Amino acid sequence: MFKILSLLFLVGVTYSQIPQPCFSPPLLSFVAIQYDQERVFFRQFDAAYDFQGQRFAFYEREDSRTTPGRQYYQIIILHKENVAYQYNRQSKQCTKSQAGPFRPFGVPPEGRFEGEYYIGGPGETIEAVEWSDRSDVRRENWLGVFTRINCYPVRTWLHNSQTNETVHTDIFNVVAGVTNPSIFEPPTACRNATVSPGFNKLAHSLRGSYRH
Predict the structure, then answer these.
(1) Which stretch is the leader sequence (predicted)?
(2) Cα–Cα separations (whole angstroms), residue 139 to 108, 116, 132, 143
């Protein structure tokens, strides 16, 4: 009888350790590096996330080593207003488009557990969990990596099967809270911007964390 109870206890402990879908803290500031496989370039952003306000903001960092004439952007996505602004900091031009549905940082309830591992070396490791939207009948269009304890975003991989475009985003230097609230304020040039049809491609690839 003791052996049976011990076995049941071990099974219960093992089962309780299986990661469950999660959502990230409601306010975050972070740095995001995006690699667009189709356009073959990197973009690095200072960024912020507001769950309650359903807002994302990205301010691209300039790199003097890049190709002369490259354009740098500020992206502000306000889902409650269904508006996404893309401001070109070189031309001072702003385009306005639909924000689309809000998708918070986190793992959807139907997310598929792919594995867990440690990031870093001895003495500085962080346990991370990888999820996908893969099913038994189709390949994944989304992969997401989050820390196990607080569900902080670490990495996302998005594939658009219609355009065959793949975008990788690495997230680091995550801080709880919004350290620069003004990052959500659209530039003056955006006040009179006209709405373009459809979704802004760059904003669309950055918003949220789990699928198109």
Answers:
(1) 1-16
(2) 17, 20, 9, 11
Asked, for residue 2, whether it belongs to a domain, the answer is no
- Residues 6 or more apart in contact with residue 20 via CB below 8 angstroms: none
Read off the pLDDT of residues 29-62 as tens digits, 9 standing for 90 and up: 999 998 876 655 688 999 999 999 999 999 999 8
Give Rg (Cα) of the chain. Answer: 20
64: in domain: yes
Cα separations in angstroms, 186 against 104, 133, 189: 21, 33, 8
In a domain? residue 212 = no
The secondary element (H helix, E strand) that includes residue 204 is: helix 201-206
Range of the domain at 146: 27-206
CATH code at position 185: 2.50.20.30
CA 27 – CA 112 distance, rounded (Å) = 25
Report yes or no on 141 lying in a domain.
yes
Q: What is the pTM of this model?
A: 0.82
Return the biggest CA–CA distance within the chain: 77
